Amino acid sequence: MIYRSQTTSNSLLTALVTLALCVPIANATTYPLTGHDDIVVGQDQSVVTVYEDTLYDLARKFSLGSEELIRVNVGVDPWLPGAGKKLVVPDRHILPPGPHEGIVVNLPEHRLYYYPKSKKRNGPREVITYPVSIGKMDWRTPLGETHVISKQQDPIWIPTESVRKEHADAGDPLPAKVLPGPDNPLGAFEMRLAAGKGTYLIHGTNNPIAVGLAVTHGCIRMYPDDVAALYPIVPVGTRVRLINEPVKVAWVSGELLLEAHPPVDAQGQSFEPNIDQFAELLRASVGATTVAIHWDYAREVLTRADGVIATVALEAESPAAGGARPSVEGIPPPTEDLPPQNSQVK
Fold it and tell me: Is residue 17 part of a domain?
């Protein structure tokens, strides 16, 4: 075991945070919704690394959580991927179930979706999506419906007594309040939620490298550039739904698309998926529709739980014409040019 002095550790942390803050700013991930049936947005893509890239830099550039990018590029060193590596950038999402309005945060996905109101009645709509961090062990991000009750630029952080005790017990005492600036963990913007009597926030961070992880005290943490873009367009009173949906499905042109993420427990921690429970969720999603599910491949996708959308079934009978039921073996394997996967959930 290697021991470092406190001074060395602090210097390393400062260097990492400084590196993360210098990453090029990502464009907002905004997708038009052309109709009420739109349920899949975005497109997976690839990028070839240059020498100075890290997966943490690229995750922020493409508005992904670091684990989203690391999980699908198995075997690539996140700090030193090297030049000339072709990486998969997972940027295709099945929209979460429920009303397409306000803000929706899907905890297993570590992702926030915002559906701004159209400026014109029956005008074009869109969805904006960003990666987020959620609560860590012993600090639960609440589930259910709430709303934004206030907004603040350059907020003052007043840690709760429980947070101060945690830090004090760890030998890292906190002040009673932290003023705006580079040391403020709330970043430059906060949106306060009604949940928990106003103790839960959507906010920025002074440690963007951790976005996409279960590291907060229950709040929803965003990249500084993402929260800066979201803050001015979200009015006070906006509805917010916090959901726990590790498995999402969508019917598109007779194909059943499956998107699976590592499930999270009551404390927001990811854990190894129970494939039988996942399979029951998939069956429930299919409902009474007659389909041919490629169960071997579906279980593989559920086991990987890497967030990459896959076709796992075909509609077995046309609702209009009553066609013949195809065999399960007739379902083609995925055609995406993905790197080798393993079944280990991180």
Answer: no
What one-character DSSP code corresponds to residue 87?
E
Residues 84, 220 contacting (CB under 8 angstroms) = no
What's 251's DSSP letter? E
The catalytic position among 217, 219, 261, 294 is 219
* Residue where a domain terminates, one of 242, 269, 285: 242
Q: Taking the CB of residue 265, how many other CB atoms lie within 10 A of it?
A: 12
**Per-residue DSSP letter, 211:** T
- Cβ 233 vs Cβ 215: under 8 Å: no
Domain that holds residue 136: 101-242
- Give the pLDDT confidence of 259-307 residue by residue, as tens digits: 998 887 655 555 566 677 667 767 776 676 667 788 888 888 888 889 9
Q: Is 22 a catalytic residue?
A: no
203 is an active site residue: yes
- Return the structure tokens found at 289: 């529709």
- Tens digit of pLDDT for each residue in 5-39? 333 333 333 333 333 334 334 445 899 998 777 89
Residue type, 16: L
φ and ψ at residue 299, rounded to 5 degrees:
-65, -35
- Residue range 130-184, pLDDT digits in tens: 999 886 544 567 788 999 999 999 999 887 777 777 777 777 777 778 888 888 8
Residue 138 token pair: 């012993």
Paired residues of 128 in beta bridges: 30, 114
**Mean pLDDT along residues 104-117:** 93
Catalytic residue among 203, 217, 261, 294: 203
The reply to whether 217 falls in a domain is: yes
Q: How far out from the chain centre does Cα 131 lie?
A: 4
